[in-house]
Amino acid sequence: MAARWIKRLVLGTAEACRINALARRRNAGGLTVVCYHGVVERPREGGLFGNTTGAAEFAAQLDYIGAHFRPVTAAELAAGLEGARPLPHNALAITFDDGYRNNLTQAAPVLRAKGIPAIFHLSTGYIGGRAILWPDEILLRLMDWPGDGLPAPDGRTVSPDASRLEAARTIKEACKRISPAAREEFLARLRAETPATPSGYDAEAHDFMNWDEARSLASMGFDLGSHTVSHPILSGLDAAALRRELRESRAVIRSQTGSQCLTLAYPNGGTGDFSAKVLRAAAESGYPVAFSVQDLIAGTAPPRFAVPRVAVPGHVPLPVFYSKVSGLYAAFRRPAGTDSRTGPVQ
Predict the structure, then answer these.
(1) What is the pLDDT of residue 147?
(2) Going by C-beta distance under 8 Å and a sequence separation of 6 or more, which residues neighbour residue 13?
(3) N or C: which end of the chain has fewer CB within 10 A?
(4) Kindly report the CA angle at 73 between 67 and 79, in degrees rounded to 5?
C-alpha cells in the first residue's frame, strides 16, 4: 500500500517537478513506441471499454507528444532499426492495433490536424466483416451469460466472488492459452446461450473498418501494418498456421491498399505471446520490424522483432500518460505479464 501511495505521489507531481523532463533527457537517444487501440468521440465508462480513448483525451496526449518528441513514420522507424539511417533524438512512433473504424473516424482527423504520423495495424480477417474481435466477444457474452455461474473453457463453472466482470476477464485471459479450435468451440457455446448481438456491444467501439476505409487511411499518408489475420496468440500456433497468419495478412494489406506493410504487431503482445519461433517467422515473412507490448521504453537498441511498446489504455490520467511516455512509469513497474488491451497486468 505504501509503495502504491508513493508511486501515485511521484507520478502526480513528476511533470511539475520536471522529473519527466529528466527521464526524457535520459532516453533522448532512444525510441519510444506507444500502443493504442480505439479512439471514441466520448469516453466510455466501465470496464468493458478499457481499450478506448476519448477523442479529447487523445488530442491532449498528442499535444504532449508533439511538444516533447519527434514522431516518426514506419519507413523512418525501419531504416533506423535496420541501421540504414539514425533515428532522430526523442523519436516516438504512434501505433494502433486491430483496425477499428474509429481509427479512421476519430483518431485520423486529430492526427492529421496536428501533423503527426501513425501506424495502423490491421487484423485482416475482421476487416469488412461484422464480427466482434474474439477477446471482446468472449467478455461481452460472459457478461450476458444466464445465471450466476460463468462457464470456463476447461468445463468448470466459475462463481464470481465479488465482480462478474473480473471473473469474465479471468476466463477471457484463460482463452488466450487454449488452441484456436478449442476457443471457437467455447465461443460457439457462448453464442448458443446469449443474444445474437451482445447487450454490451457498442458500434463505435467494436466495429472494424472495411477495405475502402483502410485505403482512405493509406491515402492520407498513414502507414498500415499487420496484426495477423485472426488475432491468435502466435506462440501457441504450429509452424504452418504461424506462417499463414503472418504472410497472408501482409499480402492482403499490400494488395488491397498499396501499403508497404513494414511492421507487424503481435496480438496481445506480452512476453508469453511470442517466442523465438515467432521472431524467426516474422523475419522470414518480410517484416523489417515487429512490436510487442511490454509497457517499456524501447530505448537505444531494441530487438528489431520484439520492439517493446508502451500501452495506452483509456481513462489514463494525463500525469500518468506523461510518465509513461517519458520512461518514468517503467521504473515503478512490477515484473509481470502484459495484456496489450488493458495495459500492464499488476
Answers:
(1) 87
(2) 19, 319
(3) N
(4) 120
* Statement to judge: residues 247 and 146 lie in one domain: no
Quote the crossing angle between the two packed helices 134-144 and 180-193, to the nearest 10°: 40
Helices (H), 145-210: 164-175, 180-193, 203-206
Let me know whether 116 and 141 are in one domain: no
Same domain, 98 and 179: no
Question: Residue 106: its pLDDT value, please?
Answer: 98
Q: Is the dihedral of CA 270, 95, 31, 26 positive or negative?
A: negative
H-helix or E-strand spanning residue 120:
strand 119-122
Q: Look up residue 292 and give its amino acid.
A: S
Q: Are 54 and 40 in contact (CB under 8 A)?
A: yes
Does one domain contain both 188 and 293? no
Instruction: Please state, as a whole number, how many other Cβ atoms lie within 10 Å of the Cβ of residue 82.
Output: 11
User: Considering Cα of 143, then 235, then 301, then 92, what sign does the dihedral take?
Assistant: negative
Residue 343 has pLDDT above 60, yes or no: no
Q: Distance between alpha carbon 124 and the CA centroid of its chain, in Å? A: 15
Tell me the pLDDT tens digit for each residue of 81-98: 999 999 999 999 999 999
Sign (positive or negative) of CA dihedral 253, 287, 299, 271 = positive
- What does the alpha-carbon distance between residue 3 and residue 331 come to, in Å, rounded to a whole number? 12
Question: What is the DSSP code (8-state) at residue 107?
Answer: I
How many structural domains is the chain composed of? 2
Other CB atoms within a 10 A radius of the CB of residue 148 amount to 11
pTM above 0.85, yes or no: yes
Alpha-carbon distance values, 2 to 5, 8, 160, 184 (Å):
5, 10, 29, 43
Identify the CA nearest to 291 among candidates 216, 228, 208, 220.
Answer: 228
